[in-house]
Amino acid sequence: MKLFRRDESSTIDESVDPSVPDVEKTAAAPASTTPGKGRPTPKRRDAEGKRRGPVAPAPMTAKEARARRKAAKGNRADRKAAAADRRAAVQERRARMLAGEDKYLLPRDQGPVRAYVRDLVDARRNLVGLFMPMALVLILSMFVAPQLQSIVTLAMLVMMLFMIIEGFVLGKIVNNRVIERFPETTDTGFKLGWYAFVRASQIRKMRAPKPRVGPGDAV
């Protein structure tokens, strides 16, 4: 029996062809090997530096530094032309902002709702708009006649009371009109009322954007 088992194992071993490659080892081995570049990958900073070219050495003196800045800015005529262009661009932007073009307005003034609120305020004759000039007159009168200080203080308190009352009334009117005109808007409440109050408290000629309607006009 032992001899039979040895013969069986030897028969099995001999049946294997040594020329046939091992399938598992062949599958585990990589299909192909890519040779290395033979050099390290350059850093991004070094690559960008090579594309830009050599960097000029730092100036040794202050005079050399001023000369470089002057050369970079160009001659006097070019600098004057560039400054004139910048001033013209700023003036044009301000003119369009004062005209009410939505693209050039501040974020707080943009949108049809805010434009409608400005028209509502500008079409009203608001007592709160007289607070600043009247307060200035009362303050100046205190320096001219110090004995009127108590009267001026009382007058200013009364003016502030009227200003607060009108602010609440104006905010209520503005919110109701906005809800009627723009029922889907979420820009309502105290924030919108405060926006209307701040514009109403400004002198009409100093409002920005400039009023598009006159006092008493229908909006």
UniProtKB/TrEMBL annotation:
<feature type="region of interest" description="Disordered">
    <location>
        <begin position="1"/>
        <end position="86"/>
    </location>
</feature>
<protein>
    <submittedName>
        <fullName>DUF3043 domain-containing protein</fullName>
    </submittedName>
</protein>
<feature type="transmembrane region" description="Helical">
    <location>
        <begin position="151"/>
        <end position="171"/>
    </location>
</feature>
<keyword id="KW-0472">Membrane</keyword>
<keyword id="KW-0812">Transmembrane</keyword>
<dbReference type="InterPro" id="IPR021403">
    <property type="entry name" value="DUF3043"/>
</dbReference>
<feature type="transmembrane region" description="Helical">
    <location>
        <begin position="127"/>
        <end position="145"/>
    </location>
</feature>
<feature type="compositionally biased region" description="Basic and acidic residues">
    <location>
        <begin position="75"/>
        <end position="86"/>
    </location>
</feature>
<dbReference type="Pfam" id="PF11241">
    <property type="entry name" value="DUF3043"/>
</dbReference>
<keyword id="KW-1133">Transmembrane helix</keyword>
